[in-house]
Specification:
Blueprint: H1 10-25, E1 29-33, E2 38-46, E3 50-54, E4 63-66, E5 70-75
Antiparallel strand pairs: 1-2, 1-5, 2-3, 3-4
Pfam families: Hfq
InterPro entries: Hfq, LSM_dom_sf
Protein name: RNA-binding protein Hfq
Amino acid sequence: MKQEKKASRPSRKLQHLQFAAHSASRVPVIVHLSNGTRLTGVVIASDNYMLLLGQDLNDPTPVLVYKRSVTVVTPAGPEGEAVVPDAETSPEFVRLFVPRTRKRR
């Protein structure tokens, strides 16, 4: 049997770079969740599925957030600058997901 190999998605790489930049800069961010909740804090760490958000770097009880529930991540306050990954490492074109519509009969 042949095993199917999944193609890597450029959007996943871009998301990983963005969370890595937030984690490295230690700038406070606002994480907007899909249920309308807003969480404020510093991105301590992230992996493929989860995000660790704390009030500061030495927070003893950080919040674990699943990435699938995150809708938007914005800098907190006017002093927080937008973190953009390097142009060399980010892809030039990121495909947007367009849902297929069913044909009506």
